[in-house]
């Protein structure tokens, strides 16, 4: 039995033995390639000198930016540092409250500002620039953080109700002239499409929808009704709401004692269901003596009544 098993499953033909030998040889060959690779292909050594030079240059720049600011003249000789904290702090300066928008050159010099920094401030103000808060002095070019820290507690920005014009080292105040145009309110019951289009966010389609909605209602009795216009985003309505008004309150009313179903159902606040209920109640109980009588109809909620009541009447014109 075992002989048959070995003969059937563990014996190989000549071709099979040859294939196994070739396959093992290929596996050994490919596994050995990484070990013999360095003998055939030599790697190029990396020159780190260029990299070290760049690191050294970067270190020098970092040192210059944190310790001192130096500049060179046209002659190539090194001139005096623009700012040196150790030398600058040896000088004694006065400290008093000042407004950088109005302080004169002499006042700035007493506070410790250098001539070039004073000139920079004057040029900034002459071009229409302004300091709006104390921290803005930190943006002055050439003013070191140590100086900002020293001067910041004494900065007092006055109310900028007047513009200042630089004349030499003095400032001349010029009265502030407002260029803001007065707001023009739009009467939502009389405005045409062009007036609605002038509002921000209202195009030709929305303006026409507002007018169509106004005509179907019979006129607006509240500015809030404009916000119910189909397709008008609430965010847009909130932006234009303050520009809307009602001057003429002219509303077309429907007589619920004489109007038929076709007339009433076209109204946006009544539609078919409410109009049909009113007609049926009138047929069964007779004419209404007051508009409030429609609240006896079960399908008419308080909300429906409050919205529709201004457009209803029981009086015969």
What does this protein structure show overall?
- A hairpin with a 2-residue loop joins strand 1 and strand 2 (170-175).
- With 317 residues, the protein is mainly alpha-helical.
- It is 43% helix and 6% strand.
- The protein has a two-stranded antiparallel sheet. The chain has a two-stranded parallel ribbon with strand order 3-4.
- Among the domains are: 91-175, Photosystem II 12 kDa extrinsic protein (DNA polymerase, domain 1, Orthogonal Bundle); 186-245, Orthogonal Bundle (DNA polymerase, domain 1), CATH 1.10.150.320; 254-313, DNA polymerase, domain 1 (Orthogonal Bundle).
- Mean pLDDT is 78; it is low at 63-83, 86-90 and 161-171.
- It is built from 13 helices and 6 strands.
Characteristics:
317 residues; mainly alpha; DNA polymerase, domain 1; 43% helix; 6% strand
CATH architecture of the domain at 91-175: Orthogonal Bundle
Q: What is the β-strand count?
A: 6
If you compute it from the alpha carbons, what radius of gyration comes out, rounded to the nearest whole angstrom? 45 Å
Query: Which CATH class of the domain at 91-175?
Result: Mainly Alpha
Any idea of the CATH topology of the domain at 91-175? DNA polymerase, domain 1
If strands are numbered along the chain, what order do they take across the biggest sheet? 1-2
Name the CATH superfamily assignment of the domain at 91-175.
Photosystem II 12 kDa extrinsic protein
Structural class: mainly alpha
In round numbers, the mean pLDDT is: 78
Main sheet properties: 2 strands, antiparallel
Our count of helices gives 13
pLDDT < 50 runs, ≥5 residues: 63-83, 86-90, 161-171
Distance linking N and C termini: 121 Å
Kindly report the oligomeric state of this protein.
Answer: single chain
What coarse outline follows from CA principal-axis ratios? Answer: flat
Q: Helices and strands, in N-to-C order?
A: HHHHHHHEEEHHHEEHHHE
């Amino acid at each position: 039995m075992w002989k048959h098993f070995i003969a059937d499953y563990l014996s190989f033909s000549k071709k099979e033995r040859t294939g196994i030998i070739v396959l093992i040889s290929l596996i050994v060959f490919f596994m050995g390639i990484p070990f013999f690779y360095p003998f055939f292909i030599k790697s190029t050594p990396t020159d780190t000198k260029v990299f070290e030079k760049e690191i050294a240059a970067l270190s020098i720049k970092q040192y210059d930016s944190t310790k001192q600011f130096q500049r060179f003249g046209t002659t190539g000789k090194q001139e005096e540092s623009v700012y040196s904290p150790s030398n600058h702090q040896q000088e004694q300066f006065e400290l008093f409250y000042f407004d950088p928008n109005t302080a004169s050159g002499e006042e700035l010099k007493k506070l410790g500002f250098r001539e070039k920094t004073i000139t920079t401030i004057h040029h900034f103000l002459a071009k229409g620039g302004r300091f709006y808060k104390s921290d803005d002095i930190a943006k002055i070019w050439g003013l070191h953080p140590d100086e900002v820290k020293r001067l910041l507690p004494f900065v007092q920005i006055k109310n900028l109700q007047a513009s200042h014009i630089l004349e030499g080292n003095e400032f001349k105040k010029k009265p502030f002239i407002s260029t803001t145009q007065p707001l023009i309110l739009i009467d939502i019951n009389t405005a045409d499409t062009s007036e609605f289009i002038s509002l921000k966010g209202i195009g030709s389609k929305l303006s026409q929808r507002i007018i169509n909605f106004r005509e179907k209602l019979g006129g607006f009795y509240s500015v809030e009704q404009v916000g119910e216009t189909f397709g008008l985003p609430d965010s847009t309505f909130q932006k234009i709401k303050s520009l809307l008004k009602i001057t003429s309150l002219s509303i077309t009313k429907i007589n619920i004692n004489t109007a038929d179903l076709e007339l009433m159902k076209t109204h946006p606040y009544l539609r078919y269901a409410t109009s049909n209920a009113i007609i049926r109640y009138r047929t069964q109980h007779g004419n209404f003596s007051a508009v409030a009588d429609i609240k006896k109809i079960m399908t008419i909620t308080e909300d429906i009544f409050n919205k529709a009541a201004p457009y209803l009447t029981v009086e015969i014109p």
